[in-house]
Structure formats: structure tokens, C-alpha cells
Amino acid sequence: MAETVxxxxxxxxxxxxxxxxxxxxxxxxxxSQCRKMSGHVWASTxxxxxxxxxxxxxxxxxxxxxxxxxRGFCSYCGSSLFWSHTEKxxxxxxxxxxxxxxxxxxxxxxxxxxxxxYYRVHPDEATLDGSSF
Length: 133
Description:
The protein is built from 1 helix and 10 strands. With about 130 residues, it is mainly β.
């Protein structure tokens, strides 16, 4: 069986990454932190940290957004790229930063109880008020 390899970049290409191995389905987070960080909602997949190889030229910065999590972004172009929980061995990766084809599907909308009032989600898509992920 062939190894799954997918790559991605920030908008300007200063941060590049490769993921070797399976990726989790895409979760769309509606919490207020993700909305403020991304300008809308945060759609991400994830992989074990040791399967993600990040290449960058000093532009990757991390912001400690809560006691439990930090967010990685390109300090040159501003692309939001990663979300990292201090107690998990996975790294969440912005689905929009992945090169196509991704082969991924959207699994659910999480923290939907915190969604803003200016958009709608298709009624066929699963929504969770919190998250167990």
C-alpha cells in the first residue's frame, strides 16, 4: 500500500509542510477564537505531530491563544496554518492551506453554539455544540 503524502503552504510560500500518513476528516470550528483568528470559521484536519514536516525560513510564529492551545501563522503573509493543543500529540492543519487534491471530506461543524449570526450551515451537515475531538 502506498504511503499517503500531502503538502501545503501559506499564501506567500514561506511556510511549507508535508504530511505523511492519514489525515482526519475536516472539522469546521465556529468558536469565537477560531472565528476571530481566521476571519470566519476554522476548517482543519489533523495528523500526528511526528507525521508533519514543516519547512520555513523564520516566518512561522506561534501565538498562545489560551492556556491549552497555540496557533501557528506566517508572519509575512498572515496565513493561519496550525492549531496545537498542549496535551495532544496531533497537530491541526488548515484545510485551505493543503494542496489539491486533498481527498478529504467535512465531518462536522464543532462549537456550533458559538457560531455567528451572519451565515448558515447546510442542514444536512452535522453540527455539535461542543467538541469531543
